[in-house]
Write a structure and sequence with these properties.
The chain has 182 residues and is of the alpha/beta class. The N and C termini lie close together (7 Å). The longest helix has 15 residues. Helix 1 runs parallel beside helix 6. The protein has a single domain, classed as Flavodoxin domain (Rossmann fold), CATH 3.40.50. Strand 4, helix 5 and strand 5 form a beta-alpha-beta unit. It contains six helices and five strands; from the N terminus they run E-H-E-H-E-H-H-E-H-E-H. Strands 2-1-3-4-5 form a five-stranded parallel β-sheet, with helices on both faces. Bound molecules: flavin mononucleotide. Flavin mononucleotide binds next to helix 1.
């Protein structure tokens, strides 16, 4: 079955490791017949949630005029969400985290999402995989809370320069994860 995949990227560095992992994932997913919609959170203006609890009450998902209101329909159309992200301070970069925080709107506004599956593609500078544990655990708890099935976590450590991922198995693995979406 062809699925709508929303691929949220978190790095401001254009053409860097995150973007390359996202490209490879997209190649695999499109080959498997899926549609991938890419959303570069770092190019957007999504502010943090202020817990006003007025979501969807003023005609838009968020009552404040920011780019979450263009992202919200993409969340609503998605069957699968992919978070492609660099590791920033052992967690998500703030631009991507804001796009995650505002998922709260769908709870407060009582607009259940049809998303059933998710994946995490992560790159970081540190060589030790344990340094990614905070990010991976956050992702797993978000998935558990929202009832999404985890379809794969790819952690590619030891990446500093924007092309470093090319020297690893990461791109092949990301492409395989995309192709494995059934
Ligand atoms: C603000 C900032 C914070 C970072 N924090 C971490 C970190 O906590 N752990 C780590 O291993 N790498 C950290 N890095 C390095 C990036 O995660 C790494 O270089 C990554 O591959 C960048 O991905 P990109 O090429 O897609 O931008 C940080 C980089 C920046 C700019």
């Amino acid at each position: 079955m062809s699925k709508n995949i929303l691929l949220l990227t978190g790095s401001p560095r254009k053409g860097g490791n995150t973007d390359k992992l996202a490209d490879a994932f997209t190649t695999g997913a499109e080959r498997a017949g899926h549609t991938v919609v890419r959303y570069r959170t770092a190019d957007k203006n999504i502010k943090g949630c202020v817990d006003c609890k007025t979501c969807f009450s003023k005609g838009t998902a968020c009552s404040f005029a920011d780019d979450f209101n263009e992202l919200a329909p993409l969340y609503q159309q998605a069957d699968v969400v992919v978070f492609a992200t660099p590791l920033y301070w052992f967690s998500f970069p703030v631009q991507l985290k804001a796009a995650i925080d505002k998922l709260y709107a769908f709870l407060i506004g009582d607009r259940p999402l049809k998303i059933k599956e998710c994946l995490l593609l992560a790159s970081g500078g540190d060589k030790e995989e344990r340094k990614f544990e905070g990010l991976v655990k956050s992702y797993q708890l978000i998935a558990e809370f929202l009832g999404w099935q985890d379809r794969g976590v790819l952690v590619v450590p030891g990446l500093h320069d924007k092309d470093d991922v090319v020297k690893t198995e990461g791109l092949r693995q990301a492409e395989a994860l995309g192709q494995a979406i059934a």
